[in-house]
Structure formats: C-alpha cells, structure tokens
Amino acid sequence: MDGARSELGPDDQVIVDLVPMVRKVVGSRIRDPHLVDDLVQETLVRVMAAHSRVEGDTMAPYAAVTARNVVASYARRNDRARARAHLLAHGDIDSSERPGDSLLRQEDRSIVAAALARLPAAERDILVAHEVNGDDTRTLAATRDTTPGAVAAQLARIRAKMRVEYLLVKENLEPPTDRCRAVLRALSAGDRRRQRELDTGAHLLECDCCALVSAGLLDRWSASSSDDEMRVPVARDADVVTARQTGRQVAARLGFSPTDSTLIATAISEIARNIVKFAERGEIVISHVSTGGSDGISIVARDVGPGIPALEQAMRDGYSTYRGLGLGLPGARRLMDEFDVVTEVGKGTTVSMTKWHSARRRPGDNEN
Amino acid sequence: MPSPELPGTSEPLRVSILTQGQFLIVSIHTALDDTQMTRLQEDLIEQVGRQRSRGIIVDVSTLDVLDSFATRTLTQLAHVARLRGAETVVVGISPEVAIAMVQLSLQMSFVHTALDLEEGLQRLGELTGALDEAAFLGTRSRG
User: Fold this and answer.
1) Which residues on B lie below 8 Å from A265 (Cβ)?
2) Could you tell me if A199 and A254 lie in one domain?
3) A363 inside domain
4) B49 falls within a domain
5) Contacts of A258 in chain B (CB under 8 A)
6) A172 Cβ neighbours under 8 A, 6+ residues apart
7) A244: chain B residues, CB-CB within 8 Å
8) Is the pLDDT of residue A201 over 50?
9) Collapsed DSSP state (helix, strand, coil) of residue B65
10) Could you tell me the pLDDT band of residue A34, with boundaries at 50, 70 and 90?
C-alpha cells in the first residue's frame, strides 16, 4: 500500500495543491468548520477518483465544480432529511446506496433501451428529444408543423406505450393475444373510457400475462384513485374476508352509517363467496358513484367462472347448488338498493350492486 | 391447549375455547373466513364429547358480519350439540349485524341468544337446569 502511494507522489501533489482552493469554495458556502472539513474530503475523494479522466490543467476548474456540486447535494440531502424528520422509520433509506444499486441501474438502462427500440422511429425520436435532450413542446411543435398541445398529447400516449413495453421487456413476456397491448396501453394511460370500451377488467382476469404486467401500471394510478376505488382479487376463502372488510372501510369513509356499512359488508361477503365456490377466481371492485345529486357505493363482482345456467332460480330464496341456505344472490339483493346480474354460461358472471347514501332504510321496509 | 388446532392445519385458529365447569366458552378474536368457521364448528363438536359439556357459549361480538354461511355453521353446530346433549347460546350480536341478519331473513334455529356473556351464562344455567353454582358465580364476580 505504502509503496504504491509513494509511486503516485506527483499525482498526490496535484491533489494536495487543490486543497486550499476547494476549502475556499466550500468555506464560502458552509459555516460549520467540521462540516467544511467533511465536504472538502468528499470533494477530494471524487476528484481523485476522476483523476485519470481529467487533463492536468483542467484539474483546478474540475475540482471547483465538484466542490460546488458536493455542497449543493449536501444541501439537498439536508433539506430532504428535514422534510422527513417526522418519518422516523424512513429517515435515510434512499440516500445511502446499496451494493447492488449500480448493477440494477445498469440493467434498468438496458431494459429502457430495449423498450425504446420497440417504439416506431418517429415516436422514439420525439420522446428522446423531449425527455433526454430537453426540447420543449413548443420547439417540437414548430419543427413538426403542429401545435404544442398536440405534441403534449402525443407524448403522453408515447409514454403510456413506453411504460407497457418497459414492463414487457422487464418481465420478458410477449402478450399472447392481439387485445393485450391495447388493454395495457389503456391502463397505462389511465384512460377510463377506453378501459370500459375494451372491458379491461374481464381481460385481466383471463390473461395471466396482462394481469402480471398491469400490476406495475395500476400502481401509478392507485395514488389518485385509491380513495374512490378499491380492487380486491378473490380466489380463496380468506379473500372473502378481505373483500368485505375493504368494503366496510370504503363505506365508512364515504359516510355510510355503521348499520349500512355492515349491510354492505354482508352483501359483499355473500357475492364474494359465490366467486370462491363457483368460479376459479374473480375480483371485487368497490368504488364511489354519484349521479344527479345522490351518491353511493358501487360494488362490482366479476368472475371467469362457469356462469349461472339457471339465473331465475338462483335469484329465488332457498335455491342452492352447494347445500347452502340459497340466500347468496337474493340475500345480497335485499341488502342493497340496486342489483344486477349479467351471466354467460361458460364465460363468467358479473354482479353489480349499489347502495345509495340518501336511502336510509330500516329493517322491515326492505321491499322496494 | 390454548388455541385448538386440527391435525394437518398449520395456521392456528384465532379462537380460544375456555372450559368453565360444564360449559365451553368460545371467544373469537378476529373475523373468520369460511374454512375457519368450519374448523371451529368441528372442533367444538369434538370438545363437547370429550369434555362432557352441557352447554356452549359462542361470543360473536368480534365477527364483522354474520352472513348466510356463518349463520348456517352456527345453526348446524347447535343442532349437533343438542343431539349430543348440549345447548348453544350465541352472545354479542351487535345491532348492525342483527339488522343485516333480519334483512337477509336468516334464522338461527336450535340456537339460543343472549345479549352478553353474563346473560349467556345465566341462560345456559336455566336451560341445562344444572346450575353449576361455582362456575356460574365465579364468572360473575370476575365479571
């Protein structure tokens, strides 16, 4: 070690010569002398690391710039730490780099490159011009003979596409059907109208590939829609409990009374059980609805099961195919204000039910 | 044996079954799914025989809902228990859960109900005619 260091004598001298200048740059921005020492050290370490890549006579300006950057990033770190001071547990998690991080970044870069390569050339160019080169939408619009708004909309569409391709490359999946990409793009763009047109919910239940990829896409929207819409996958007994508890929470948040919340939770329990009993898997979507001054809670239970061959009978009290009480569907209907079943034999069943906020019903007046 | 477990099931059932004289007192700690309800039912039926119990009290105040399946399970339990000489009292049905049960037209045949554990014990005492004074008063004073 010592031998190696003495060989590098002249190079070390270059660094040592930089110290007063670096100290001056840092000292003019930071008051605490100990902190100045720390940051000077950090700067020198970085300059030494870059030594071989920097020309001898540009060493001084390079060191000055590095010193300024070190001070700036310290200030940022400090600000962030102050902003997060109340989050005891999360303090410094992302400021320290873990060993695998650079490897992950590199892998990420190659995924991004592969995803970019899948976009059409024109789209790739405009995305790179905007995101990497920093061209604003006005410049892009001028060169393409269009309006900034149109460019922004196009960019949003390309980004949605890019997210889909990124996830597909990352998971190393090729969508099995023609519909997959359209569905995934609609989810990625958060386009509710298009999602309805494509019936994305049903597709996600059928298609394992899309179900996997969509998890990454839906995360993006969960922050904006989590208050109003909750999705619970239902496949096992335990999911029935999760679904009805989620329903109760949403109902309570929407201002339903404890009694109504319990009615809603009970109705969810009944229809979620039907999914577990008759279909392999399904999902329950709980959301807030409002139309014409009244608002309420909507529950949609969708499955890809065998469908209900005798819907008329199934809706009647006491009809049961698994020795239950036969109260599942008719019971849920009595607990809610609106109730609708769409079923197709061999494809699946969708139960939609709504409870309105204004309709405060008492036990006994359950006939509409 | 604090938490009953059936052979072959790894997850402990979050239910405690206490023996109070000739009575079994079942307290459920969390919402139960259908499989857990069924396990509880089987376990209780087995214990009624083993402990020669005359009565069962099931406290359902922590159950979030009593839907058709939960009701059916409790009803079956009570029916089997009666055939084996024990009465079943369900206590702790909250007003919200009761209203939901009424709207669902759920019947609890074979099952007696009482407002809370204390009333439930008293009810069981009356029903079985075997007022186990020690057990009954013991619980009361701890109340």
Assistant:
1) 64-65
2) no
3) no
4) yes
5) 96
6) none
7) 64-65
8) yes
9) coil
10) confident
Interface confidence (ipTM) of the complex: 0.83
- Is residue A235 a part of any domain in this protein? yes
Interface of B with A in 102-121 (CB under 8 A): 102-106
Domain coverage including residue B32: 15-142
Element containing residue A4 per DSSP (H, E): helix A2-7
Q: Residue B31: which of A241, A266, A366 has the nearest Cβ?
A: A241
User: Is B102's CB within 8 Å of A363's CB?
Assistant: yes
Whether residue A346 sits in one domain with residue A244:
yes
Which among A240, A328, A363 is the nearest to B33, CB-wise? A240
How many of the other CB atoms lie within 10 Å of CB of A136?
12
A315-321: long-range contacts (C-beta < 8 A, 24 or more apart)?
Answer: A315/A341, A317/B105
Closest residue in B to A249 (Cα) is B64
B137 located within any domain:
yes
Residue A31 structural domain = 2-83
Tokens 């329990």 belong to residue: A269
3-state secondary structure at position B2: coil
Mean pLDDT value of segment A143-147 = 83
Kindly give the residue spans of alpha helices, DSSP state H, lying in A97-230: 101-118, 121-131, 137-144, 148-171, 179-189, 192-198, 200-206, 208-225
Confidence of residue A320 (pLDDT cuts 50, 70, 90): low
**Are residue A283 and residue A324 in the same domain, yes or no?**
yes
**Is B97 near chain A, with CB under 8 Å?**
yes
Close Cβ partners of A321 (under 8 Å, ≥ 6 residues apart): none
What span, in angstroms and rounded, lies between the C-alpha atoms of A183 and B92? 48
Within 8 A of A269 by CB-CB distance, chain B residues are: 65, 67, 69
Q: Which residue of B has its CA nearest to A332?
A: B104
- A161 close to A180: Cβ distance less than 8 angstroms: no
A285: closest CA among A205, A179, A177, A208? A205
Which residue, chain included where needed, has tokens 């008063």?
Answer: B137
Rounded Cα distance between A76 and A16, Å, is 28
A40 with A133, same domain: the answer is: no
Q: Do B33 and A241 touch (CB under 8 A)?
A: yes
Region of residue A334 (left: phi > 0; alpha: psi -120 to 50; beta: else): alpha
